[in-house]
Amino acid sequence: MGPATFLRSTVITIAMLAAASASAASDRDLTVSHRPARPVHFASSGPLNISLVPTSASVLRIGSEIGFTVGTTAGGYASLYVLSASGKVQLWMENVPIQAGHTMAYPMRGGIVRASPPAGDDQVLLVVTRTPFAGFSRGSVRSPLVLPYSHGSFRQALAAKTARFGSDDWASTELTIRIED
Fold first, then answer.
1. I want to staple 82 with a disulfide (CB 3.0 to 4.6 A). Which of 10, 21, 61, 62 is the partner?
2. Where are the alpha helices (DSSP H) in the chain?
3. Residue 111 lies in a domain
4. Per the structure, how many domains does the chain have?
């Protein structure tokens, strides 16, 4: 699948269990980790195969919880984006280190992802790169952020950002989550 063909529409919002969960998604603060002094480059000696698996059904009712397991065969940096049926584009995490052969759960640290209106198909996109990339935020982000893109313009911007990588230095996959009333 080419970089310009992997996003559609998503409307899953994240409800964090922390006190800040009462604020609107656009008012959430980001938790940014410090970038290592020298970013690690994971050698391209092995294939970069990735997986994105929901931890519940892929058809959900509004209000249902969902999580994901992210995996990779080679070390790298994981980024997770959502294109909602409402037309919003969300960044859920970006440039988060992931080790080869290990899985990572999302949401992290007691967070909850809940399906929210409107009903429709939501696209969840995972991108893993061997080095951190100049994504849509700064550094390593693990908190939700609404991005100022339409679905089409986000796909174009992501395609431009990943075009800088060789074909062995990044991979992407996506899944559809159907939200029903």
1. 10
2. 151-162
3. yes
4. 1
